[in-house]
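S.,

Sequence below, as promised.
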Amino acid sequence: MQRIGIVGIGNISGIYLKNLTGMFKDRVKVTAVTDFIPERADQAAAEYSLKSFRTTEELLNSPDVDIVLNITPPPYHYPVALAAVRAGKHVYNEKPFCVKREEAAEVLKAAAGTVRVGGAPDTFLGAGIQTCRKLLDDGWIGKPVAAAAFMMNHGPEHWHPNPEFFYKNGGGPMFDIGPYYLTALVSLLGPVVRVSGSAKKGFDERTITSEPRKGSVITVDVPTHLGGTLDFSCGAVGTIIMSFDVYAHTLPFIEIYGTEGSLRVPDPNTFGGPVSVSRFRSETWSEVPLLKKYSENSRGLGITDMAEAIGEGRPHRANGDLTSHVLEVMHGLHEASASDQYYPVKSSCDRPAPM
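The prediction came back faster than expected:
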C-alpha cells in the first residue's frame, strides 16, 4: 500500500483528507502533512493521527512517504513537484499541473523512468463522465463531430476566503476551472491538435464580498473571459467559453454531437450525473442511469488509482502526459488570442483507459 504525504493544508485539503482516510483507506495510507502555516498542519495531523512536518523538505525526506500530494497554490505546484521527484517520490499535483509549460516539461523529464507523475482533476474518473465514456465507446451517438463546453459565472470573490490568486498569473477562469472541462473532453474525445481563441479582461478590479476580506479590492491581471475553438485528433471541433464575467446563462456544461445523436455530459467539476442522450432527430432527451461507480464527491480517486497502478505496473489514468497536455491547450488558447493566429498543440496524450 502506497503511503501519501500531503503538502498544503488549505481550502481543498479537507475533502482529500476525508476521502483518503475514509473512502480509500483500504487502498492508500496518508502518513504525513506539512504547510507553511504550521498550525494548520498540526491541526490536520491531530485530527487524522498523522505526522506533522515543519518543512516540505522534511516531508520529502521521510521514509514513510511514497507519494507526495501537492495541493499548494498554483505558483508552488512546480517547485514542490520538482523537489519531490528529485527526492525519489512519486507526485500528484492539484490543477493546474504547473503555471508554465516549461515547468511541466522539466518535472516530467526529471521523473521519466524513475517515479510517477500525475495530477488533478480526477472528476473524469467519476460515474458521470465514465458513463459518458461508455456511451461514446459503445456508439450511442455515432462518430463525434462536434462538442461544446461552457463555464460561466461572476468569479469566486463572493465565496472564497482569499480569492486574490484567481486573478493573478496562473489564475483566471481557464486555469482555474478549465482543467475540469478540458480533461473531461480529452478523456472522451482524445487529444487536441489545434486551437484558436479570443480572451479579454472584463473588469480591471474586483471587490471581495466574502469574509474575512469583505470590501478589499483586487487588481485583475489576467483575462477573465475566453472563447475558443478546439480541433481534436478524432476530427471533432469543439467550442469552449470560460468566464468570470457572466452573472447568469442557460448554456449546458458539456455536450457532444455525433453522427447519430447528441450526448449531454454532467458538470465536470463533479463526479456524478445526470447524463442524457438524444438520438437522431428526436427533440427530447432521455436520462441514462449512471453505469459506473463514484457518483459522490470522490476527490482523491485519481491519486488512489495512481497508487494502485504503481503496485500493479500499469499506467495510471490522471497522468502527467494528460495534465501537461491540458496545460498546453490552456496556454495555447491565450496565445492564439494574443497572436491572432491558430496555435498548433505540440504535445499529445492517450485517452486514459476507462474505469
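The domain at 2-119 is CATH 3.40.50.720 (Rossmann fold).

Coffee later?
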